[in-house]
Amino acid sequence: MTSQVSSPAEQADEAVVGEQRKPAGEKDVRRLDRVIIRFAGDSGDGMQLTGDRFTSETASFGNDLSTLPNFPAEIRAPAGTLPGVSSFQLHFADHDILTPGDAPNVLVAMNPAALKANIADVPRGAEIIVNTDEFTKRAMQKVGYAASPLEDGSLDGYSLHPVPLTTLTVEALKEFDLTRKEAERSKNMFALGLLSWMYHRPTEGTEKFLTAKFAKKPDIAAANIAAFRAGWNFGETTEDFAVSYEVAPAAKAFPVGTYRNISGNLALSYGLVAASRQADLPLFLGSYPITPASDILHELSKHKNFGVRTFQAEDEIAGIGAALGAAFGGSLAVTTTSGPGVALKSETIGLAVSLELPLLVIDIQRGGPSTGLPTKTEQADLLQAMFGRNGEAPVPIIAPQTPADCFDAALEAARIALTYRTPVMLLSDGYLANGSEPWRIPDIDDLPDLGVQFAQGPNHTLEDGSEVFWPYKRDPQTLARPWAIPGTPGLEHRIGGIEKQDGSGNISYDPANHDFMVRTRQAKIDGIDVPELEVDDPDGARTLVLGWGSTYGPITAAVRRLRRAGESIAQAHLRHLNPFPRNLGAVLERYEKVVVPEMNLGQLATLIRAKYLVDAHSYNQVNGMPFKAEQLATALKEALDG
Q1: What separation in angstroms does the CA of 565 have from each of 98, 331, 535?
Q2: Half-sphere exposure of 146 toward its Cβ, with a 13 Å CA cutoff?
Q3: Which are the contacts of 565, defined by CB distance < 8 A and separation ≥ 6?
Q4: Bond from prior residue into 423 cis (ω within 30 degrees of 0)
Q5: DSSP conformation class of 534
Q6: How far apart, in whole angstroms, are the C-alpha atoms of residue 553 and residue 540?
Q7: From CA 47, how far away is CA 334, in angstroms rounded?
């Protein structure tokens, strides 16, 4: 979905709710500036699809938005249990927002487990829509309810809407030739229709989507559309929902342009395709499926028309081996994985360092160690990316900060890899990968030129006057070696992991040469041209909040809250983690206190302390979920007062 919006405006992450009522005799319509909705149910209830469709229609309407899908690792987790709850949270607004929101204004709970798993996050006064058909005695006992929460007064502080979603859906589909079980599967579309009515969301896109999704099963498509319309009509006619809400488009939040909703993994995929086109190189992905990186493999496999070749390998090692071979052959080579896969790929990354070939290693981080939390988010692979290889094997590391920023990060990773002939680590995470936000579709003319020059002939003259090709004769500016395509006449050279003689590339065990090569490879990484770190410090603060990766949204939202409360605080966010921006040391010296929030136990803080001898204060969270803005604001206020 795309939408047009107009000129930019700096606005707060949160604002005051307004209200507008229609004349007597009609249902009230209240105008809000932002809403946070959470859909929750069993992993088989279609909550991710429901949230995704509501998000798509919200994007087409022109709101700013941010999403947080949250689901179990099991393909079909135990029904009706707390570990089996799947949820999708969407924050949308008429102004610029940064996070999926701390607490939902509306909770749609499809069963007792969904209610119990999420009620602690719901503030008093919020609306709760429950599917009463699922609140059977057995279902409630399964999650520890001794009595029905719908009747024992425990929900009196909320605006409770008991709706027999299953019964209403089955009734709406009685004219279709479906079993009751088949009809019940459409209850998520009934709920989507109801919420679409409540918040005046467009409906045409969802109906087209359902028609296309079930094109081979037109009866199922018609049933889902009927359930969706029935939910809308229920909202329109029932007395239980006396109010609907409007959230105007974010007309002043963004620059003029064409926007679409995009997830981090989709943005990364598009960024890789754009990079290959800007470099005029075929794109090769060697990958093994792993959560939460698999969507990149799925997406790139659709784009053969852009010269993309995808290879689903038998394991992680084969995936990166094939990618490195493709780099040797002249492709823009990529391998995608998560933390456990990086561990398996580490030897081949070291080989890529030795061969000095461009290779993009994309790590969509998740909770660990080992299998850990496959569907939850974490930032705990930074030190693995920095040091997780034998020998001295430095690689550049960059990290996107939002889902849409993954597009630009992919282009930047490709720029560094191609310019400096090196593998590059890109650290995204599950929060960015699965979350989504509006993305301004760029003009192709604004994309960087990533063109490369392959070696064409001899580049060195021996003492006897003969001209030869030296594969490790370096560009004096970048220290990059020539990229010689196999089969080019006269460019035959050795390849392999054993140490090479400087220049000639012949096998060398000479101690002085090894020392020189190690230092040269490090100097190449240290010399990479990266932009200076920009600092947001409007009034000369004494405390700096330094972040990296996906903490950008929560940190920025927390900083906005503090500034609105009159506090003075500065913020900076790192995209380049190796090498650091050249002005980072000077920036750190300007502040009395540096606070580093991370979704790990302090990995960036460790690097900052070691390199700059700064007593960086860590604020850490490793619970599989992103920071909440209120939580961070409280921690930063304590740091300011400490």
Answers
A1: 18, 52, 20
A2: 1
A3: none
A4: no
A5: P
A6: 22
A7: 32
CA pair distance 465, 453, nearest whole angstrom: 26
Distance, CA of 197 to CA of 163 (rounded, Å): 15
Single-letter amino acid code for the residue at 149: P
CB atoms within 10 A of CB 33: 18
d(CA 131, CA 165): 5
* Cα dihedral 76→77→80→84 (10° resolution): -130
Rounded to whole angstroms, the Cα distance separating 170 from 357 reads 59
Q: What is the pLDDT of residues 303-345, one digit of tens each?
A: 999 999 999 999 999 999 999 999 999 999 999 999 999 999 9
Asked if pLDDT for residue 556 goes beyond 60, the answer is: yes
Q: Which letter does DSSP use for residue 119 in this model?
A: G
**In one letter, which amino acid is 143?**
V
pLDDT digits (tens, 9 = 90+) for 122-180: 999 999 999 999 999 999 999 999 999 999 999 999 999 999 999 999 999 999 999 99
Rg for the chain, CA atoms, rounded: 27
Q: Bridge partners of 574?
A: 548
pLDDT of residue 253: 84
Q: Please name which of 585, 617, 583 lies closest in space to residue 598, comparing C-alpha atoms.
A: 617
Amino acid at 406: C
CA distance linking residue 572 with residue 582, whole number of Å: 14
For 214-249, the DSSP string reads TTT-HHHHHHHHHHHHHHHHHHHH-SS--EEEEE--
Element (H, E) at 287: strand 283-287
Query: 296: closest CA among 413, 397, 443?
Result: 413
Length of the chain, in residues: 642
Nearest-angstrom CA–CA distance, 474 and 471 = 8
Tokens of 319: 């995936």
Number of Cβ atoms within 10 Å of the Cβ of 464:
5
Which pLDDT tens digit goes with each residue over 251-295?
A: 888 889 999 999 999 999 999 999 999 999 999 999 999 999 999
Note whether 462 and 468 are within 8 A (CB). Answer: yes
- C-alpha distances in Å from residue 256, one per residue of 63, 65, 97, 223, 611: 14, 17, 17, 39, 42
DSSP strands (E only) in 401-493: 423-429, 436-440, 460-461, 467-468
pLDDT of residue 76: 78
Q: What one-letter code names the amino acid at 257?
A: G
Which residues, 6 or more positions from 567, have their beta carbon under 8 angstroms from its beta carbon? 637, 640
Tens digit of pLDDT for each residue in 590-608?
999 999 999 999 999 999 9
d(Cα 506, Cα 427) in Å, to the nearest integer?
34
Angstrom distance (rounded) from CA 545 to CA 556: 9
pTM: 0.94
Phi, psi of 304 (to 5 degrees): -60, -25
Tell me the CA distances in angstroms from 319 to 274, 398, 575, one per residue in order: 22, 21, 26
The secondary structure of residue 275, as a DSSP letter, is H
**Which residues does residue 59 pair with via DSSP β-bridges, in sequence order?**
none
